[in-house]
Structure formats: C-alpha cells, structure tokens
Amino acid sequence: MGSLQIFSVLFFSLFLAKCYYSKEEDFLQCLSKYSETNITQNIYTPGSPIYSSILEYAQKNPRWLNSSHPNFIASPKEESDIRPVILCSKKKGLQIKIKSGGHDYEGISYRSESPFVMLDLSNLNKIKIDLKEETIWVQTGATLGQLYYAIAKKSKVHAFPAGVCFSVGTGGIISGGGLGALMRKFGLAADNVVDAHVMDVNGKILDRKMNEDLFWAIRGGGGASFGVILAWKLKLVRIPEKLTVFTIRRELEGNLTLLRKWENIAHQLPEDLFVRAFVQKGVFSEGNATKNHVGFYFQGQYIGPVDELIPLLNQYFPEFNLERKDCFKENITADAEKECFEVPWIRSVLYFSWRNPNDSLEVLLEKSIPTHKNYNKGTSDFVKTPIPESGWEMIEKLFREEERPQMVFEPFGGKMYEISESEIPFPHRKGNLYTIQYFVSWDNNSESISSQKIGWIRKLYKEMEPYVAKSPRTAYLNYRDFGLGTNEEDYSYSKAKIWGEKYFKGNFERLAKVKSKVDLKNFFRSEQSVTPYQLSY
C-alpha cells in the first residue's frame, strides 16, 4: 500500500471518529439542555467502563450478544430523567428501546438495525404498598422477584397474580398480559392493574384519568408501542397463609392416557387448583430412564392447605396417588415420581421457579449475570380441542430428534373464562383449553447450531398446525416470535395486521387506533410494534 493510500485510510478513519464523537457530544449536550439534573452521569457509551456489563445483564437471551449494540445506554435514576432521553432521541434521529427485565424472546429491548438508545429502567424499582387499600405502586424497572419480596415482607395473606420467573421485569410482563399460577383464580397480571403512569412521545406523564384508551392498550397490548410505562398501580389479591404445591412425574410411553385426561379436564378444575404440564426429555435420571426418553410432569398449586387438596386430587386425578404424608417428607430426590409441599405463597414462588421452597427469600432479589450462557428460542399456541393420539405421537417423534426440547401447557378456565375478549387487548379467553409454549435451548451459539435449533422448533410449530387454534392461529405476546411476521419498512397497518391479529385478534384494530392518537409519527417502533391505523409514509 502506497503512502497516499495509507494517508487516505487514516484521514477517513479520523473523519469517521470525529463524526461519531460529534454525534455523541450533540446528544449529551441536548440531554443537558432538557434536564434539570446531571442526567449525563447515567448515560453510557461503548467506551464507558460499565457499558458492557449493563448490556450483558440486559440480554437474558444472549443469542444477540455480538449483534447490533446501542449507541447509548440511558439508566435514569429518576422518572423525570426519561423526558430528555425521549426528546433528544427524537431530535437526533435515534430510536429508543425500552428495557425492563430484558426477557423479550426476540431481544427487541436491546437490539436494533438503526442507531438507538437502550433505555434501561432497572434503577427505577421503587415499590409502595397500601394494605388498607390493598394496592401497590411499582415502578417498571422492578422485577417480579422484587415485587413479590416486598409484598411478602408486608403481609402473609396478600399476593399478586403474575408470572413464575422472578427475574422478569414488571414493565414487560404486565404490559404483555402476564400468565401465572394464580390466573385461574384471579386472572392475568394485566387484569389486576388499576392505574398506571406513562410518559408519552412528548415527554408528558399520563395516568388512567387522562387517557382511558391508552390505559386499555398498555394492559396486554405491549407498552413499548405507546410510550414508556413508568409505574403500575396493582390490585393485591387475598390468599390463605398456606398453599400447597406439588409435582407428578411420568414417562410419556405408557402414560399418554393420563396426559390426555389432563387436556380434557384441567380447565374445568376448581379455580383454586392450577395444574400445568411439561413435556421434555430428562424428566427422570439415567437410573430410571434412558436419556433419550420423553417424559412429562405436572406441576400444580392449590390455594389452600394440603388437607383440602388431597380429596380434590382423589376426585379428579387419583392416578397421581398423592397422599398427605408426601407433603411433609424431607430429602426428596430431584426426579422423584411425586413431591409436595405446604408453604406460604412466597415460597410457592420459589417452587415454581425450580428452587427449593426453603431457600432464602433473598434469591428473589438476585441480579447477577449468569456465568453459563443459555441460548434459546420460543414460540406459542392456544388450543381449543384436545390433541388426538396421532398428534402426541408426532410430538414424541420430533422430541427424540432434539437434545433439549420442551413444551409447557398452562390451563385456562376459572377467572380466565369470566373476562371478555375485549376487556383488555389480551383476547385469549373462553374457548381456549390451554396455552402451549414451545421452547428449545442450546449451549453453542455458532450459526450452524443456532440455525439447526431454530429449524427444529419451526418444524415442530408447523406440524402442530392441525391441532391448535385457527383463523387466526393465535399466539401470546410475551412469547414473542418474529416467525409470525414483522413490520416492513413502511410500517403499514395492513401488513402489521397479519401478525398483529395472531397476538390480539380483533383487538389489534383498536390498538392501532390508540397508537394513532398517542404516537401518530410512530416514534416508538420495532419489528413487532403496533403501527398507527392506516399509516403510510
């Protein structure tokens, strides 16, 4: 390479660096202009010492760890600090990606093809409980673990019905609906929201009284399409001091009748009884079954003591053979055919997160970065009629082809059937027996391995088509899947409707109309954001 060429390369590199730092300085200066505090102390660039650790903690699914990174990470400590981030991002042509817990299945809270700011809400985690009113205000950077911990510290007879993974952020799970072990008794998390604070595209804070349509949209319609949800006001629910949790394990071969019985009656059980099913490999250890055996297990919760549960199980599932003495055993092995515990609600939370119910409650507050990288892909379906035997045979056959496959079946009925499809954007109510989550995980994130795993789950999803809800084939927003469709460059409503009605059915049109009122220019956008009604650029 000649001296002139070397000089040209150096000059071009310096030019790009100057442009980058100029844009960085422009954004920081803009923030200072609009901020009443020194917000720039909580703005991080790729050169900042803690930038990488914040990003790594945010990416609960590390598949995209080496893909597009934010130009800036904003980690505000006060809600008022978010306004300058919105206004300056608009001014400087940056998108905003809102990260509460970082569990989005497609990573849209921390990646983008366009220059963007990741708005990290994790510092906004204040919780205020009013037991007299039986409500709780929680900022959306708090995790479910922090929320549950705070409730348990205040009361032994109150709970909140939300998800079972306690590291999930309250901002994302509630705005997407919020399935959980208490839903048959109390409904979704989103069904139990009584107010909210939302910052709109102009930096104005709105509550329920100021915009009832927006309040409807963010309870199950995905909050990040409409603004930044700052805090939820939630309705606490009353529970007894003791609940009973249990697990029943079986091999699939020879026990399909029991699984099909569950399909037919799980939605009809008393609303205090929640029994979900898992199908996967490795239900039993090598001593009890070969590694390639496909098994299943039921994980259940009864909102009451064991003495009330046992008669119910004898009536509906005598095959479980669960006895009172099983609930007070010590030193149960991890793959025992049955196990049972009578515990306070907060310890049922630990149990449903695959923890020992006697573990310290402080684990609910953990915020460490996992040392083991678990790459994964998920998607979902809703089921209205039981799967025939041929369907289960297909599932077992495909599971034998994959190393770590899993399907999770969660029953509806009870309160879920009492709420109309249009009460909130989440439309999957009466008529749905249960929801399915398909899941596959792997350790090596090479392109060939990832493609193979994603190809497998796509194949399973395709083969399941005859057995699940149709017209449209439906899905759960919190198990987001770009395979259902994504927005195109023009963000047209007609194209977005193709994937949008899979999540929201007829509610998608109303969501799009709300979007037109609060964010007509479509600033808050992503591959699967709600688009303004009839928008065309």
UniProtKB/TrEMBL annotation:
<dbReference type="GO" id="GO:0009820">
    <property type="term" value="P:alkaloid metabolic process"/>
</dbReference>
<dbReference type="Pfam" id="PF08031">
    <property type="entry name" value="BBE"/>
</dbReference>
<dbReference type="InterPro" id="IPR016166">
    <property type="entry name" value="FAD-bd_PCMH"/>
</dbReference>
<comment type="similarity">
    <text>Belongs to the oxygen-dependent FAD-linked oxidoreductase family.</text>
</comment>
<dbReference type="Pfam" id="PF01565">
    <property type="entry name" value="FAD_binding_4"/>
</dbReference>
<comment type="function">
    <text>Involved in the biosynthesis of pyridine alkaloid natural products, leading mainly to the production of anabasine, anatabine, nicotine and nornicotine, effective deterrents against herbivores with antiparasitic and pesticide properties (neurotoxins); nornicotine serves as the precursor in the synthesis of the carcinogen compound N'-nitrosonornicotine (NNN). Catalyzes a late oxidation step subsequent to the pyridine ring condensation reaction in the biosynthesis of alkaloids.</text>
</comment>
<keyword id="KW-0560">Oxidoreductase</keyword>
<keyword id="KW-0325">Glycoprotein</keyword>
<keyword id="KW-0017">Alkaloid metabolism</keyword>
<protein>
    <recommendedName>
        <fullName>FAD-binding PCMH-type domain-containing protein</fullName>
    </recommendedName>
</protein>
<dbReference type="InterPro" id="IPR036318">
    <property type="entry name" value="FAD-bd_PCMH-like_sf"/>
</dbReference>
<dbReference type="GO" id="GO:0071949">
    <property type="term" value="F:FAD binding"/>
</dbReference>
<keyword id="KW-0732">Signal</keyword>
<dbReference type="InterPro" id="IPR016167">
    <property type="entry name" value="FAD-bd_PCMH_sub1"/>
</dbReference>
<dbReference type="InterPro" id="IPR006093">
    <property type="entry name" value="Oxy_OxRdtase_FAD_BS"/>
</dbReference>
<dbReference type="GO" id="GO:0016491">
    <property type="term" value="F:oxidoreductase activity"/>
</dbReference>
<feature type="signal peptide">
    <location>
        <begin position="1"/>
        <end position="22"/>
    </location>
</feature>
<dbReference type="InterPro" id="IPR006094">
    <property type="entry name" value="Oxid_FAD_bind_N"/>
</dbReference>
<comment type="pathway">
    <text>Alkaloid biosynthesis; nicotine biosynthesis.</text>
</comment>
<feature type="domain" description="FAD-binding PCMH-type">
    <location>
        <begin position="65"/>
        <end position="239"/>
    </location>
</feature>
<keyword id="KW-0274">FAD</keyword>
<dbReference type="InterPro" id="IPR012951">
    <property type="entry name" value="BBE"/>
</dbReference>
<keyword id="KW-0285">Flavoprotein</keyword>
<dbReference type="InterPro" id="IPR016169">
    <property type="entry name" value="FAD-bd_PCMH_sub2"/>
</dbReference>
